Amino acid sequence: MSLNGRWEFKLWSGPAEAPADVMRRDVDVDWDKLEVPGHWVLQGHDRPRYTNTAFPFPIDPPRTPDANPTGDHRRWFDLPDDWPRDGAVLRFEGVDSCFKVWLNGTEVGAAKGSRLPSEFDVGDLLEPGRNLLVVRVHQWSSGSYLEDQDMWWLPGIFRDVTLLSRPLIGDVFVHADYDHLTGAGTVRVDVEPSSAQITIPELGLELRSAETVTIPRVEPWTAEVPRLYDAQVAVDGETVELRIGFRTVAMTDGLLTVNGQPLFFRGVNRHEHDERRGRAITVEAMRQDLVLMKQHNLNAVRTAHYPPHPAFLDLCDELGLWVIDECDIETHGFIYTDWRGNPADDPDWAPMMLDRMRRMVERDKNHPSVIVWSLANESHRGRNFGMLAEWTRERDPGRAVFYERDRSYEFSDFYSLMYTPLEDLEAIGTRTEDVPPETEDDPELETRRRGLPFLLAEYAHAMGNGPGGLADYQRILERYPRLQGGFVWEWIDHGLLLPGATDHVYGGDFGERVHGANFCIDGLLFPDRTPSPGLAEYKKVIEPVRITGPDPLTIHNLRTFASLDDLEFVWSEEVDGEEVDAGRLEVPEVQAGSTADLRSPVEMHAPVRRRVDVAPDGERWLTVRAVLAKDEAWAAAGHEVAWAQFRLDGGSAEDRRGAPSPAQPERVVPGGVQPERAVASVVQEQVVPGGGGERIVSGGGGERIVLGVGEFERSTGRLVRLGGIEVDGPELDLWRAPTDNDCGQGGRNGVVGEWRAAGLDRLLHRVDRVEVGERELLVQTRVAPDGLGAGVRATYRWTLHDALRLTVDVEPEGEWSGMAVTPRCGSWPRVGVRMVVPSNLDTVRWFGGGPGEAYADSREAARVGRYTSTVDDLQTPYVVPQENGSRIDVRWAELTDAQGNGLRVEGAPHFQLTARRWTTEDLERARHRSDLTPRDHVYLNLDLAQNGLGSASCGPPATPQHTLEPGPYTFTLTFHQFGRSPEHAVGRSDA
Fold this sequence. Notes:
Helices cover 10% and strands 35% of the residues. α1 packs parallel to α2, α3 (350-364) packs parallel to α4 (383-395) and α5 (422-429) packs parallel to α7 (470-479). The model is unreliable at 659-694, 818-822 and 981-991 (pLDDT under 50).
């Protein structure tokens, strides 16, 4: 019987205020209403609190403060007369953080361990008809010292409450192994009582408890092919349904293996979170999480940092993911006492810690998806972990044991770190890493550690715009067998959407003094479960099928177990983004770990087989896609699993979209064709009759220079009109609204400090020279911050060809890389120009990378093609506004109004495009999305390049390869103005 639903509720400031007689039927309390499962702080009572590492109460274990919010929950329920009360059990799946239970006025018991089940014998207290259940929940308890897990502190009964009748079966433990050499399966089911009968109908088996049977041939369970067999365990009066998966977990030759094969984790850390319900997450949301994981090529999840709702593991069994199941233990806040009093090394805390480990193992031991038990997270070192590991291995020798933060790894089957720099990861792969202090004086322990396989417990911090560098990590992880993959931090942003609110809140939004700010906004999903650009990037980077080529095309099966028979391969040929031909590839059977070579369906440099009119000299691309051949439980037929693009008309190696990311531009980039200049004084009025050249006119704010469709201020050389379109700019821009990864963590690793110290956020522009020449305008400027000597010379050279061409030369002045007054500035945020155009130019069409945003070290998912979007839809709605929305490798872009009038920008050869309705400064000031008020213009950034994103919010910054160093740069842009009406059809070339 489910006891979920509307409960009566009353919140007290602490235990002293709460009534002692709350369990009485006639207690005098003005009850509110509360939904269970749920958190009272998300239903109008008190407020949620978020901390990353700090306890939100004084560190004085095991004591708690007097100000300890206490919630009394009351539920009336009717029990049918024929309900079998004998042996009934009341089960709570999760209550945060400790609670006491009364049934019909009698105290039943109390429990701790927020994310673990608690059961109470209540058979002799149940009554036919009306029953009263009362539960008192305290927000803080001694157990809170073990629950400091970088998340919202959300008290309440947040998982299911159930009344169970006659649980005659006390325990079931399934042992189902698979012999990868013979294909045989071995099964034994230990049951209490031993009189139980076990049946597996599909295999025709009827077993007794503890009877071992070998089946000559079974289909194994893996995350790639999650084969399950239905089974029943029965005694007279009760039947338990099971789903059995045959698989064998072993540590073999220094590697974690399943069914004889070393595993490679393409994983993610997952907190339980819902934007409105907190951790009271629904089964529908759990399924949505797992479907999205499968659709984005993830194969593993670490249940950070506690056991999940049990239904989540049922879904992992069904859909297929490897699971590291983590115990509900984290004592991170003791870093503020230098780990004095840490429960992990205090024998007095051993029973509570072991209780949590046992409850997790006993609850989850029959899930084939669970292959590793994790003892805890970020709880330093301590002898209690040895006890936990010993008990776990004795109880369940068929799984591995994991713990990352004890750097001796004495009790772990894995060597593991978090946010490891790439150079260190490479050393670990070759087993040449430095000896950690914890083992340098213990040769035996160090020898053991160096023989362990390596896992990245957390990496690539997905906070805000990012993470960058996923492709760099993946190349190293795949290169060395010792590296068995890793788990990105993390799955979902923990933004909360409170009743009536439009903005998601995070730490500090309630005026609290101690909080973790927006460090909880660090997921691959936005709080509403919309995938972020980071998840699209991760999907591309971890594709289980890699396609290289183009002639031959090579199909690499990176799976561990499954062939590619579930996929079909399709191709298309595009010219300048327009499809001209398409078809299906005939791919032979490709077993796991194997490759197949195919002849390209399109010959390089051959004449285009046209199905549409295309430019004869356009860019020619071959796109090959691997898609599902039939419906799966997690996606429909046609779902794209992997893809690659190849340029067929002699483009550079960087135009192989399955290849590694290109580096940042050279410090000097060729600017395209440079015409001979014929320079005249700016004060000399010139008219070239019929030549379409420059002239000087009066009007508006003073004299202006007209060059083709461009009209410029005479005094500044600034473009103010392009044909019939009023514009402002372009001018040099070196700044961007800092991303979370730019800011780093507590000032560590971030680049914003040095950027601000160098004055890049307060650049002032001075015009030094404006020259008018034949079919040319030259503007020389200096751009520099106040108070500093370093600056940049920016020269704008406008020339008239078929359209209006701008070449920008950037030349640093001063000691950018070794300033005496300010810290060294080793990078610039961006190099490009910004300009302002009318707000009605709100449709953007471009040929280049898309469809989503991309940056120097987060560009693998950008596919070359033609795309259309509104300006509003170009924005990525990060919870905390920051630089976003860049489209990379843009050949040309058009901004048009509703009538089709607009402007076109072309690169030589490419540029990065950003268009938004607010300025960079608006974006930088905003703390929530509602802080962004659209202005009456559209603001364009046309960049040569931007600095990489990195992962410095909790990891390494952008690598040198993706760092935009201060230096001389040159880039060229060409501008057209056009319209659908004849009077606007000026200067537009064919697309």
